[in-house]
């Protein structure tokens, strides 16, 4: 719904000026800036925790978050914001990363919480959530995609750089949707803890994937995929 034609009320077109006025109105609605989306998977966490509040980062997970934060800071970009999942492991990862990016505002959202986005194809035998989970989580994760992954607003003058700290399932689903790949293939991708996935959204709405699950900035003995 950010295509210029979708933002112009064609019924109000002036009959006298016709196409000339329409072209002017369409131009006014066109995006001018590029959005850079950095999707960060949370670091390693305590898998034995029964409740979300108990699934805190492990000591290695905290090291991973420090490495990710240092990597993002080293890019020399002016980040606009960090939006993160409200789950404990994502929140803790964000707190560590944000120390390397002072002054960048943080926003928590339930939309980016982990879940089952859509039944994978081909199916896997080791992970079979109840069908209702796909309906509940899938609608929410799709809402996250529509809410956050889109071309820049027409009022945005400069390119933006935004960080999203969330979860593997969410990131994989978003990548499939953003690239117009069948979303059922999301489980064919694998993401390390603390990895960086970089999407670029051009003013015309075209999306490119710069990096997927990059952890080349981590020593091999620090890399995990739990």
SSE inventory with pairings:
Elements: H1 4-7, H2 19-29, E1 35-41, H3 59-74, E2 81-85, H4 88-99, E3 105-109, H5 131-148, E4 160-166, H6 168-178, E5 196-201, E6 207-214
Parallel strand pairs: 1-4, 2-3, 2-4
Antiparallel strand pairs: 1-5, 5-6
Helix pairs in contact: 3-4
Outline the structure in words.
The protein has 226 residues and is of the alpha/beta class. The chain has 2 domains: 30 residues, no CATH class; 190 residues, Phosphoglycerate mutase-like (Rossmann fold). The chain contains 6 helices and 6 strands. Strands 3-2-4-1-5-6 form a 6-stranded mixed β-sheet, sandwiched between helices. α4 links the parallel β2 and β3. α3 crosses α4. The longest helix has 18 residues. It is globular and about 65 Å long. It is an enzyme of class 3 (hydrolase). It comes from Jacana jacana. This is Serine/threonine-protein phosphatase PGAM5, mitochondrial. Keywords: Hydrolase, Membrane, Mitochondrion, Mitochondrion outer membrane, Necrosis. GO terms for molecular function: protein serine/threonine phosphatase activity.
Short précis:
One of its GO terms (molecular function) is protein serine/threonine phosphatase activity. This protein is α/β, with parallel strands linked by helices. It is 32% helix and 17% strand.
Key structural traits:
226 residues; 2 domains; 6-stranded mixed sheet; 6 strands; 32% helix; 17% strand; membrane; hydrolase; Mito_Ser/Thr_phosphatase; mitochondrion; His_Pase_superF_clade-1
The overall pLDDT, averaged over residues, is 92
Structural class: alpha/beta
Order of helices and strands: HHEHEHEHEHEE
Helix amount:
25-40%
Query: Rg from C-alpha positions?
Result: 20 Å
- CATH class label of the largest domain: Alpha Beta
Q: What do we call the CATH homologous superfamily of the largest domain? A: Phosphoglycerate mutase-like
The CATH topology annotation of the largest domain reads as: Rossmann fold
- Overall geometry: globular
- Uncertain residue segments: none
Adjacency order of strands in the biggest sheet: 3-2-4-1-5-6
CATH architecture type of the largest domain? 3-Layer(aba) Sandwich
What's the total count of β strands? 6
Kindly, what is the distance between the CA atoms of the first and last residues, rounded to a whole number of angstroms? Answer: 37 Å
Q: How many DSSP helices?
A: 6
Strand count, sense and barrel status of the largest sheet are: 6 strands, mixed
- Overall number of domains: 2
Estimate what percentage of residues fall within beta strands: 15-25%
């Amino acid at each position: 719904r950010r295509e210029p034609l979708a933002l112009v009320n064609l019924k109000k077109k002036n009959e006298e000026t016709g196409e000339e006025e329409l072209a002017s109105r369409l131009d006014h609605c066109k995006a001018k800036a590029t959005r850079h989306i950095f999707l960060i998977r949370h670091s390693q966490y305590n898998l034995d925790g029964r409740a979300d509040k108990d699934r805190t980062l492990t000591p290695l997970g905290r090291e991973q978050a420090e490495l990710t934060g240092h990597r993002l800071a080293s890019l020399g970009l002016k980040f606009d914001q960090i939006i993160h999942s409200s789950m404990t492991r994502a929140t803790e990862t964000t707190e560590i990363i944000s120390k390397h990016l002072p002054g960048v505002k943080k926003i928590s959202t339930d939309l980016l919480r982990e879940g089952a986005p859509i039944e994978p194809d081909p199916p896997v035998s080791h992970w079979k959530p109840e069908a209702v989970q796909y309906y509940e989580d899938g609608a929410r994760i799709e809402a996250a995609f529509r809410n956050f992954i889109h071309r820049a607003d027409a009022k945005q003058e400069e390119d933006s750089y935004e960080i999203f700290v969330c979860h593997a399932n969410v990131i994989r689903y978003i990548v499939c949707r953003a690239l117009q790949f069948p979303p059922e293939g999301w489980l064919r991708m694998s993401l390390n803890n603390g990895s960086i996935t970089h999407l670029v959204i051009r003013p015309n709405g075209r999306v490119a994937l710069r990096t997927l699950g990059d952890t080349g900035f981590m020593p091999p003995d620090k890399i995990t995929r739990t």
